Amino acid sequence: MGCFSYMCKKCGTSVRSISFNGEYCTLYFLVEGKIVEEMRGRYDSYGRVFKGDDSYHKLYHPNAESSNPEQIDTSIDSHDWKYAEWGEMVGMHFEGKNDTGFAIIHQSCFRDDDDEPTIISDDDPDQGWGKMRKEFKYEVDCGAHRCCVCEWPSEGNGGYTCECVCPVCGVKVFDDITIEDHGKCRDCHKERLNNLQPISDEELIEIAKNGYSDFLTPFPEDVVVAGQHKCGDSLADFVVIELIEGTEGEEADGVERLYHAIRLMEKAVEQIEGVKESLTLKIIEMEGDTIEETCENCNYKLNKDEPITIEGTALVHGTASLNDFQEEGIEWIPKHSNDEEWICPQCGTKNKIAL
After folding, report:
1. Which helix (H) or strand (E) holds 37?
2. Which among 101, 167, 183, 215 counts the fewest CB atoms within 10 Å?
3. Cα–Cα dist 42/22, whole Å
């Protein structure tokens, strides 16, 4: 999966991102025309917004435990959608219902008296690619110049003063925000542009091949071959397609292209782990095992991966999940017996563990 984006519901243009920064927007997830979740911030190229002081995340789903983004988010750099699993939400977006799926609005396009969206956005055919436009960037109401790292002014603005420095030369980076070069000062920015080391498609594929397997394993030589699935390894095909299509247009700046390629692979690993977990749960379901136990007194449903207080017949006492109650440093005696009990967190009843 490469980068993707949507068209703004107000101005009709795409919401753009350069993977480490993006145009300032509000993303909504609609179900039958009603907003169930929204997030605001700089678009991250992957249907989310970056975390930061300029962002927020609200979840209106009635089963949500909290709408605090720090409590419901698990990702490091961007806010994660929580209404449902990501694959399910994408599926809902493409079901063909124009009132269920993702909608997006540039924040500068939104007016206080505007109605919130009830119809989803069109997909961006250019996948969010293109130079970020000044009118859609995150702006602080202050002077004309801002730090190109934190985007705050050099002084003022509630007493906050930018103290960011260039990672190359160590001088303060406060300058025109339009530099957009990972916070480097203007001189280092110009020097880097004059010394770019390009990475071609062929070189990127060779780098990936060296890390994927030994030289005897077939590996697609280009994205066309990968798309035709001729090498006999569909995962290798996927890697090549993702790397080449996901970093298209970045050949001139080899370092930035490699950084972007790494982010693509990290996202792929995250998604494959999710597929693995889903397959494992299906095996448990098909084999007749349960992922929950029920308290015999109050019918409390306990997930077997949830940490719980457990007692054993040998006066052993500790906390572990039912799936791992012989691990986490706890010595259970007698082992592999049915004499251990879990204590219901709702009513305190001791329940026999079904082994």
Report:
1. strand 34-42
2. 215
3. 5
